[in-house]
Amino acid sequence: MTFLELATALVFVAIPIALTLILKLGLERDIVIATVRSTVQLLIVGYILTFVFESESPIFMLLMIVLMIGAATQNIIKKGDGIPGITWMILLSLVVIETLTMGLMLGLGIIPFEPEKVIPISGMVIGNSMVLSLLFLNKFKDEVERSDEVIELILSLGGTPKVAIDRSLKNAIRTSMIPTVEAQKTMGLVQLPGMMSGLIIGGADPMEAVLYQLLILFLILTTASISATLVGYLAYPRLFNDKMQYVGLTYRKGKAS
Amino acid sequence: MHIIEFKEVSHQDILHHVSGYFREGRITTFVGPSGAGKTTCLKHINGLLSPDEGTILFKGEDIREMDVLELRKKIGMAFQSAPMIQGTVYDNLNLPKAIFHETLERDRAEDLLRRVDLSEAMLDQPVKSLSGGERSRVAIARTLVNKPDVLLLDEITASLDYRTVKEIERLIRKLQQSYGVTVIWITHDLDQARRVSDDMWFLKDGKLVAFGEASFIDESDDPAIQRFVRGEA
To answer: Which among A31, A104, B146, B179 has the fewest CB atoms less than 10 Å away?
Structure first.
């Protein structure tokens, strides 16, 4: 595809802008910003990836992964407001997930140590972890706010903070994992997953695309379960103090949610 | 004997130098205008909150020196909204045991229900189907599982109809007499406090204005107490 062909495809941006103007949805500015940002961001990534792939240096590859983890953390920390120290917890969980999944895949020889494989797969792993962590934090904060009386009740009966928060924590882990598991059940029936479609459009053999897509699906199951569990178990002690008292979510001043 | 004693207890901007005691085996009510610090004070007794300054003694021992989880097992607490976990009445009565990976025998659970004037047939009923009064009774029965020395009650009759309120009052008096348990009870209803109290604590703006035999509330010449009794504060 050429830049000219892509430019023609801007018609697909013009349609939603026209609709939002006609229906007075007030989204036209956001659509323009989103289009410009995604174009600029992806073009930059494209040039960086070309450079990294050509250089074949593991240092640039590592740098790229660090950058992805940094950007993902930045994206999640807002959602963690109310839980002191959430930034390093998210950072740590992303590093653990990336190290574990890449370590296993490279160690077991599932993928070769090549930037063309490591970087896109890392991107998917980190990206999914980010989404799952966001989802988990949302659910967890909801659960905690909804069950603060039960948490205090269990503490008042002599239960430890871990016992007191157990139900809320596991509910939040479970509900944040459900969409991933459910989505995989219908995979391929309703829509072809993004990566597989990309590979096929790019000219890859469909069976090879399927194998890579399955690898990603399996990886996503791991990232989903580890993200929610790790962030959850790191975060919950921050809702209590050293006297086993419930302090709850502690929002920074001026923020209510 | 004083089962619990507060010595110069302060907590944030809520409690200021509270000093007083609770006599063993008696019913003491906390009364005072809303925002007086009654719930904060109550939560200090079982270590759900801690003083910034001052000391709280339980049977003469500084509670900071005690294992807080053991202390909480000795001091049962029933909350205003009678929070319940999902499941049946039995699941909720079993909760104090389940958190230690133990099980409450069904016989004992049935006995607890009878003690709070509920039918043992309710044991397998989902808590969702309980009325407000039944929920309160189950919450009270649940506090008895650990056989506490002290029972803390936070506005447990606040949202109940008058007849149920009177029944719960009779029930608490009965439990206090049969178990010899010390009851510390927050109520916003001064008439209820008069009916149930042996002793009273009158709190206002985080300060303990007066405490002792409940009769002081109607005999005091303190202007803050008189205003409260007249319903002006």
So the answer is: A104
- 8 Å CB contact of A158 and B50: no
Q: What is the pLDDT of residues A183-239, one digit of tens each?
A: 888 887 766 777 888 888 889 899 988 898 888 889 999 999 999 999 999 999 999
Least confident range of A207-216, B12-21, B108-117, B202-211: A207-216
ipTM: 0.94
Q: Is A157 close to B96, i.e. CB distance below 8 A? A: yes
With tokens 């990534």, the residue in question is A45
Q: Nearest 5°: phi and psi at B119?
A: -75, 140
Q: Which of B70, B72, B81 has the CB atom closest to A156's CB atom?
A: B72
CA A6 centroid distance within chain: 28
Q: Are A85 and A93 in contact (CB under 8 A)?
A: no
**Whole-angstrom distance, CA of residue A102 vs CA of residue A125:** 9
Whether the per-residue pLDDT at B230 is higher than 80: the answer is yes
- Residue A120, min C-alpha distance to chain B (Å): 44
Q: Which of A149, A167, A246 sits opposite B79 (nearest CB)?
A: A149
Q: Tell me if chain B has a CB within 8 Å of the CB of A81.
A: no
User: DSSP secondary structure string, B160-226?
Assistant: S-HHHHHHHHHHHHHHHHHH--EEEEE-S-HHHHHHH-SEEEEEETTEEEEEEETTHHHH---HHHH
- Separation of alpha carbons A68 and B125, rounded Å: 52
Beta carbons within 10 angstroms of residue A33's beta carbon = 10
Main-chain dihedrals φ then ψ at residue B52, nearest 5 degrees:
-75, -35
* Paired residues of B207 in beta bridges: B204
Q: What is the DSSP string of B84-141?
A: --SSBHHHHHHHHHHTTT----HHHHHHHHHHTT--GGGGGSBGGG--HHHHHHHHHH
Buried/exposed A112-124: b ≥16 CB within 10 Å, e otherwise? eeebeebbebbbb
* CATH fold for the domain made of B2-229: Rossmann fold (3.40.50)
Identify all chain A residues contacting B69, using CB atoms and an 8 Å cutoff: 158-160, 244
The sign of the CA dihedral B22, B28, B33, B35 is: positive
Q: Please, are residues B17 and B54 in contact by the beta-carbon 8 Å criterion?
A: yes
Q: Are B48 and A156 inside 8 Å of each other by CB?
A: yes
Residue of B nearest to A151 (CA): B83
Interface contact A5, partner B, CB < 8 A? no
List pLDDT tens digits, range B105-114.
999 999 999 9
Closest CB to B83 among A150, A244, A246 = A150
Q: Is the confidence at residue A256, as pLDDT, over 60?
A: no
